[in-house]
Design a protein that fits this description.
The protein is α/β, with parallel strands linked by helices and 341 residues long. It has 6 helices and 17 strands. The chain folds into 2 domains: 242 residues, 3-Layer(aba) Sandwich (QueA-like), CATH 3.40.1780; 79 residues, Thrombin, subunit H (Beta Barrel), CATH 2.40.10.240. The longest helix is centred in the C-terminal third of the chain and has 15 residues.
Length: 341
């Protein structure tokens, strides 16, 4: 199966540059998983498609304001550093730009020395390991110096940092938002609970894979980067009970999907656990955990398009994407949503 099979022509004017004023008033395309049928709704209409006894599973990761602009301590050259993953002892796997300027032991300073980063390891594709040097609490410093690591296709400045966080973001650790969750408001979540739907939270910290295009021709040659996930005992018990009672598990986003499928594949049930996953879901994959998926409209040739194509059919997804463009849906992170059920 070729990566080019998941390409589609995109009208770039449809790439959403800013979030919609009210989160749950984005548009919602409802796609029949098994028949390709399409219905056009608003996101708050999601309530009509959830049933008592279902479980809605959301990723409660929180994005770090991890994009830092600094300068080399010796030459004062401007350097951008994107913190991707904390690997302990104040060492972060990062993307540096321009990476060619960052050699071993290069020091980059931010905020007049409030934060310094010393390169201690060099990897390919712009990846550098930096030892962070600072006094105080790192997250407070990042709140002061850093900005949200918006995807490269977003060119507008984000006025409100919170709009690139879900309203339920809790566990700090992501380099990008789980964007399917951006459509939910606290009020909508309460209405969903009142309907008898269990609203459950798992964690997957979104990492490097978000910023990396698929560079191979054959899908099977692509290697996913590993990301940290966790599920609590109470959530695992609730999910097992929902399955036992014949309810449906609706995943909010591809990150929740990958977490649920990782755990179900490993244990053939849900369990309290944590670890790393590099699960790569593409057509031919047999789903073990989820019965429905809420997601956004994804980039051509991305692993995310492959995942949604696996959950429905590639032909249905590609047709839906063409119709979405005809109907002027907004695409990507700040764009509209799709429910596949």
């Amino acid at each position: 199966m070729k990566v080019s099979d998941f390409d589609y022509p995109l009208d770039e004017s449809l790439i959403a540059q800013t979030p919609i004023l009210k989160r749950d008033e984005s548009r919602l395309m409802v796609l029949g998983k098994n028949d390709g049928s399409i219905t056009h709704k608003k996101f708050y209409d999601i309530l009509d498609y959830l049933k008592k006894g279902d479980a809605l599973v959301l990723n409660d990761t929180k994005v770090i304001p991890a994009r830092l602009i600094g300068e080399k301590e010796d030459t004062k050259a401007v350097i951008e550093v994107l913190l991707l993953k904390d690997i302990g002892d104040n060492v972060w796997v990062s993307l540096a730009k321009p990476a060619k300027r960052i050699k071993l032991n290069t020091i980059v300073t931010f905020g007049d020395g409030l934060l310094k980063a010393q390169c201690i390891k060099i990897e390919d594709d712009g990846i550098r390991h930096f030892k962070l040097i600072y006094d105080g609490i790192l997250m407070e410093i990042l709140d002061k110096l850093g900005s949200m690591p918006l995807p490269p296709y977003i060119h507008e400045k984000l006025d409100d940092k919170d709009r690139y966080q879900t309203v339920y973001a809790k566990n700090i650790g992501s380099a990008a938002a789980p964007t399917a969750g951006l459509h939910f408001t606290n009020e909508l979540l309460e209405k969903i609970k009142e309907k008898g739907v269990k609203v459950l939270f798992i964690t997957l910290h979104v990492g490097l894979g978000t910023f990396r295009p698929v560079m191979v021709d054959d899908i099977k040659d692509h290697e996913m980067h590993s990301e940290y996930y966790s599920m609590s005992k109470s959530v695992s018990e609730e999910l097992n009970q929902v399955k036992k009672n014949g309810g449906r598990i609706i995943a909010v986003g591809t990150t929740s999907t990958r977490t649920l499928e990782t755990i179900a594949s490993k244990y053939n049930e849900f369990r309290e656990c944590s670890g790393t996953t590099n699960i790569f879901i593409y057509p031919g994959y047999q789903f073990k955990a989820i019965d429905g998926l809420i997601t956004n409209f994804h980039l051509p040739k991305s692993t995310l398009v492959m995942l949604v194509s696996a959950f429905s059919k590639k032909e249905y997804i590609m047709n839906a994407y063409m119709i979405a463009q005809k109907e002027k849906y907004r695409f990507f992170s700040f764009g509209d949503a799709m429910l596949i059920i």
